[in-house]
Amino acid sequence: MRVIGLLLVIAVGLLALATLLAILEPAHWVPALIVHFRWQLAAAALGLTLASWICQRRLVLVPAVVCLIANTVPLVPYLRTVEPVMGTGPMVRILSLNLRDDWTDPVKFQALIDREQPDVVLLTELRGDMAPLTAAFKDHYPHRLVAPRLSPLDVALYSRWPISKGEIDRQVGTWLPVLKAEVCPPQACLTVVGVHAALPFGDFKSLQDRQLALAKEKAWSGSHGPVVLIGDLNTTPWSENFARLTRPEEYFLSDGSRGHGPQTTFLSRFPLFGLPIDHVLVANAGVIDRRIGPDVGSDHLPVTVDVQLSR
């Protein structure tokens, strides 16, 4: 029993240290990384709370409960049911996928497109030769905005409907594009901003900050109608960077994943390490449904969202 007690003290101590470090997120990229593992920290805290209670180790029970509360509170909006926000305009189905270059299997990708039949598709981390994948589009997506392949973070937009005012902004860095376009289904238009954000490590973290700030600016510059910001943002919903995107200000974007549970999209082959970093954020529109697609070969899973536009 002494060994078990010692192991509990060490485990709860490490959990408390990680939880405290997460508070220092704005100060350095290392504690900022810890924030992304809220689901894992909450699960560990729950397990250690139960173990401490069963073993009657009051010394570690209290800090385990404190850690459980601290790591669970940010997750509550994603656990409780949220009623769909209905719009008054047409429905648009959006699919987003990080291809991981050549990892995505063309056959599985074809099956995904045939099953979901999205209206708008955003692809990131493009292949050198996109032909094996775009063959799946056939004649259904005649309208396209594709960034010249200058880096692994380039993006491409495909649509059933006309694309206008298309632009690819590289002011943050040549290899860090932010795509913006207007897609117009019948009787409405939708501003689409697509991005594959820089990694949250080292010097890249400041670039990610600037790139996401630019993406938010693009989402609202000159737009008063429905807006979606989609792509691999390389950040989770409980990070400060994500909070800046969704914080109520003069304008803000709503997180379409709220109320849909822990929909992890990256490293999901490893359930203990999966992270929700692929997002669809909306404004002046309602998210009717959001779901994660099957493994198509990439280290990311596809995200499909049904959005109803507001007129």
UniProtKB/TrEMBL annotation:
Endonuclease/exonuclease/phosphatase domain location: 108-300
Top-level taxon of the source organism: Bacteria
One Pfam family hit: Exo_endo_phos
The name this protein goes by in its record: Endonuclease/exonuclease/phosphatase family protein
MF GO annotations: endonuclease activity
Transmembrane segments: 32-53, 60-79
Annotated organism of origin: Lacibacterium aquatile
Keywords: Endonuclease, Hydrolase, Membrane, Nuclease, Transmembrane, Transmembrane helix
Database matches in SUPFAM superfamilies: DNase I-like (SSF56219)
